[in-house]
Amino acid sequence: AQKITQTQPGMFVQEKEAVTLDCTYDTSDPSYGLFWYKQPSSGEMIFLIYQGSYDQQNATEGRYSLNFQKARKSANLVISASQLGDSAMYFCAMREGVNTGNQFYFGTGTSLTVIP
Amino acid sequence: DGGITQSPKYLFRKEGQNVTLSCEQNLNHDAMYWYRQDPGQGLRLIYYSQIVNDFQKGDIAEGYSVSREKKESFPLTVTSAQKNPTAFYLCASSKGTGVQTQYFGPGTRLLVL
Question: Are B108 and B17 in contact (CB under 8 A)?
Fold first, then answer.
């Protein structure tokens, strides 16, 4: 089974609007972390936000927030007030804490295009 | 500034040639990783290392080799056995065990002549 699933290959959003990028995960490990990365056309993977499995509140970092629904095993990224510079690929990732192997599992990504 | 550096930015390989991609970090991270990314695809794990002189195969290790002689360095060799090496290669590091954030270098694009 896929550890991380991103079902939206491509998304469009109007500048200054909010957008939600979907991510669902699969793990039986009680301790895990969920991450979102941005990959602009230059190729570098930029860390955006982290959510721990035991965190009670949703993580926020500036215009980024993570809508964490543990029972549904979803970790959607919300970008508020979209900017043209937000156009990029976005990857959801998970790392398991107990049964680590230190491996990260990545989804296939969502391509976001911000329209002026 | 602390970070991860990868060199070269672009690398060209001839048929039957081995090439080595460099990855260096000054973040004092214990764990380091190599990923391969094909166009329009996600990341696939090639090798990872949790400590010096130790490394494990990832999902697509065939045709690749690594070494971890120093904490700061984790070079990847793409051997002639890798028949389809054209891809974007990303190196990453993290503090170690447990749920730690992984940070990435700028990547190396490998092209076959």
Answer: no
What's B96's DSSP letter? Answer: S
Task: For residue B14, give Cα distances in angstroms to A22, B7, B62, B78, B86.
Answer: 41, 18, 19, 11, 11
> Nearest 5°: CA angle at A56, between A24 and A103?
45
- List per-residue pLDDT tens for chain B, 113 residues long: 679 999 999 999 888 899 999 999 999 999 999 999 998 788 999 999 989 999 999 989 999 999 999 999 999 999 988 889 999 999 999 987 666 788 999 999 999 88
Cβ distance A80 to A71 under 8 Å? no
SS (H, E, C) chain A: CCCEECCCCEEEEECCCCEEECCEECCCCCCEEEEEEEECCCCCCEEEEEEECCCCCCCEECCEEEEEECCCCEEEEEECCCCHHHCEEEEEEEEECCCCCCCEEECCCEEEEEEC
Closest residue, chain B, to A42 (C-alpha): B106
Residue A43 has its nearest CB partner, among B92, B103, B106, at B106
| Chain A residue nearest residue B6, CA to CA | A44
